[in-house]
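Ticket #4471: structure output looks truncated?

Reporter: J.K.
Steps to reproduce: submitted the chain below (308 residues) through the standard prediction queue, then opened the result file.
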Amino acid sequence: MQAEKMAEGFKGEKAIVTPYSIRHMMEQNTITRQLFVTHIGYYPYARSHYRERDEGCAENVLVYCERGVGWVRLGGERYVLGPNHAFILPAGRPHAYGADDADPWSIYWLHFCGERTDMFAGITGRVIHIEESDRSRYSDRFSLFEEMYRNLETGYSPDNLEYVSFCLMHFLASLKYVNQFREIKKIRGDDVVQASIAYMKDHLEQTLTLDDIASSVGYSASRFSALFSGRTSFAPMEYYGSLKIQRACSYLQFSTLKIKEIAFRLGYYDQFHFSKAFRKEMELTPKAYRKKYQELGRYAPDGGAADG
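Returned output as attached by the reporter:
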């Protein structure tokens, strides 16, 4: 049995359901077949909204509560969703969901499927709570949703469909990797690891020691190393070295500095040690890297930079 109830629609509601012919096309496309949207919409102040599927749905169903209150039932459990709570109902599982009578929710919702839905199995079937903070980026997440909707609204060209698939991955990733999605907004004052990385980036053209970096965040070297390695899977000095190589790549591609000048600027003993570290990281010598990427930039179609 499938049951659906709503009070003659909701003012400002919108929805798109993709045709089956388009879904078959997305299943064949090497990009879209990984993850693609089949239904998408927004229901504001959805009083009396109710949906029940005794046999589940062919697709995963995502419900994101913007404001108000609603609920989801899955596997005999009932979950309450408030503002900035989301829930992904897995395909093929009986479920139901609806708006609270006293304070009905406003929801963004979509159905999605594809070969790589497993990438988000860890956030499926449970309440995803996006906590309030000065880095929450709620509007950025809603903008991603609007990107998907508006592109589908303009038609089903392969470029539109591929772009929507990438937006979908980004949207779901923003729910799975909440901290990473927030980092671009602002580094928390009490986030020792991010603060230390910011310190490293500000001092790439110097020669820092482990003690220097640890002291910058008020930690002993041993305690800081354990914390940093646990969070990043890299030793602090290894991470610092990678950031130096990243800066070196930029100099090699976009500046006319000689290789020995880059080595000196980034605090290496000499050009030999720099070249050895660079090759270990990039599997190319600095000279080969510069030749490859400067030529790619020079001969890219329409004069644009390649590999950008």
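Triage note (M.O.): checked the attachment and the full token line is present. Residues 254 and 294 are 8 Å apart (CA to CA).
Status: closed, working as intended.
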